[in-house]
Amino acid sequence: LARFGGDDRLRLLFTCCHPALAPAAQATLALRTLCGLGVREIARAFVEPEVTTAQRLVRAKRKIAAARI
Asked: CA–CA separation, 1 vs 8, rounded Å?
């Protein structure tokens, strides 16, 4: 996070929590992007397979790009 300025962090926060994303995707994206947790750590927190977490991140990033969020 040190590489991001205050405005960039706020923009990332709003992007991660955009209502177009499912709540689970919002939380996963925020933990990965803002907190820097790895897929393994996030998957363990959600008690789910790593592949599920990784796929959720991919779908969320695609949705953000497609919707120009």
From this structure: 9
pTM value? 0.83
| Residue type at 31 in one-letter notation | L
> Cβ distance 56 to 27 under 8 Å?
no
Give 11-31 pLDDT, tens digit per residue.
888 999 999 999 999 999 999
Task: Give the C-alpha separation, 24 to 10, whole Å.
Answer: 20
Cβ partners under 8 Å of residue 28, min gap 6: 42, 46, 53, 56, 57, 60
